[in-house]
Fold this protein.
Amino acid sequence: MPILVSHNTFRSQAGFFVRSGLATYGAARRALADLERLNRSDVVCGLHSAPAELKDGLSYWKELARTGAFIAHGKTFEITEHMLSHWVQEYDRMIQAGHSVPVPVEHTTDPEKNRGTISHLEVRPNGRDGASLWGVVTFADADAAKLAKTAQVSVFSPAEFIDGEGRKFVRPLRHVALTDYPVIPGLEPFSIVASLVGDTKMPITLPELVAKHEIEVAEDATPEDMLDAIDELITSLKKLEPEPEPEPKSESEPEPEPVAASMLGILRKSRVHDINDLVSQGRISPVVARELQKQYCNDNALALSLTAGNEDDSFDRLMSTLAKQPATISMSETTGPQVLDPKNNPLLADACRRAGK
């Protein structure tokens, strides 16, 4: 779907420049500064409802599911990125309708076994060439939060759910069970929500960011459309930066020795790998990754780093700094299900068997 972004042309001392949806040069500069701060803070993407209230010390990020094929009790099921996106969409509808997604101990509807609720859902790329569903689990109290140290999770999604007002939800996420026997192995453990450690400020959402800077997008714009519009804005604003004038070379300064193309290729591959690792870890967004690759992975930057006698270690220092940032940047889309129909759901069947139902 095309992005409806208005383009206005202005004249500045540097000449003509094009940028998206902002009325003045000053507004453009403020937007760029805000976007750069955003890249160093928490982002929740793909959530259309207002973020739920998080509780300091009780809210944890948790990888809930990931794409792939899995086997439970001899039956194979597959989780696709489309399914993850469907889960987020139905979650949003359920929250707006006044429902919650509980976090019980094992698969059950017994309220006595509930230990918390899901406060956010989002989809992120993972390091396995796929995507993962991440959620914020807000525990009911400190005792319940102790389970974050040892428990894993298993999601339950029935074929459909019809509420008391007749609203139908197709394959919604009905609960996320705490368990020691997850079907999906290797899920990332619980981690405290970083924005609540010394800072109770809620993470900003994509719709809030777009509205704040009056970036024009279609009314039905998806998170991907919003990210593309922001990416276009950043690219346009970067063009405002004047090109640094090359320093005049001293007559006595020797010409640098040419760098072999193979060496450039090796260094480029290494830097791209380092940048992509930060994206996989959720420490930077793909938008920031593209800008870093443009700046540090071009031939001139690589050749400069390989020139004999050059001591420029700015890339390494930048990577070290970014690696210390909290892994809470979310590039989500919208999401769908791990579990099949209740009658054919091996997880639910096993839970019911053990509960004596």
